[in-house]
Amino acid sequence: MKKIISYVLVFFLSLFICLSFTLNVLKSEVFEYNNIISKLEKSNYYNKAYISVNNHFENIIEQSGLDKSVLENIVSNEKIKQDVNDSIKSIFEGKEYKVDISLVEENLDKNISEYLKQNNRIPNNKEKETIKEFERKIALIYEEDIFPNSIFGKFSKVFVKVKDLLSKIIPIVYICALVLVILITTINIKRISSIINYFGICLISSGVLLIIPKIIEVYKLELNKLNIINVNISSFVSTVILDVLSKLMYFAIFAIILGVIITVISNIFYYAKTRNKNIN
After folding, report:
1. From CA 188, how far away is CA 198, in angstroms rounded?
2. How far apart are CA 72 and CA 83, in angstroms?
3. How far apart are CA 53 and CA 63, in angstroms?
4. Residues contacting residue 13 through CB under 8 Å, at least 6 positions apart
5. What gap in Å lies between CA 234 and CA 209, rounded to an integer?
6. Per-residue pLDDT tens for 143-152?
7. What is the pLDDT of residues 64-110, one digit of tens each?
8. CA 133 centroid distance within chain
9. Distance between CA atoms of 44 and 167, rounded to whole angstroms?
């Protein structure tokens, strides 16, 4: 009966160990501002956003009849990086963030004015209105292309709630795991080798559970074909998911190796004790 109860407790302990690893990885990889910024760098998000924004601008300029030269230097990599980072920061703080697009409009207005001056063109009132509408359209395209706040702005409060919930759940998981460790130890207090063996089995089981998502990703999931909002966001999300799965796999390998070592040690201890009994 003790053995059955022990194996049931081992099963639940394995789940809690697996859960604690997973929650800690999610907390560090997804809910830490600096890690998210590093993943944006890793996925080359800023540069891709810069290229994407300018390509979008060029498609719009062709419809306006203006020369492409008016688009020169209206945005920079530095501004895109700053605006994206500020957007991410607002999500972590649970606030709605509005990208400052006034500079984009101002730079574009200067370029258009210079272009019209060079070509000796004086716009009438209707053309001035059209130009202002065009400048506003370009600025709004910039806002949505670099980091669509219309989507992520609403996500910020949910994100903060999940982050806070995670901070509360992790200690509870630790306590549950500790209680299970105490129960397994208490039930098998007179059999040290069994206690060690059970803990070894827990680690091996946890490792196997943790490595399953990586195996599924390798054989079933095609993360490079993810389509979330736009190509740049999809690439970033893929980077985050792959980093989470890789970190879980490292923990899994560590847990399995440590579990095997502990199990071998417990068996050596058990057979040595049994042998000594037989000799006596």
Report:
1. 10
2. 19
3. 16
4. 177, 180, 181, 184, 202
5. 27
6. 877 776 666 6
7. 667 778 888 888 888 888 888 988 888 888 777 778 888 888 888 88
8. 37
9. 30
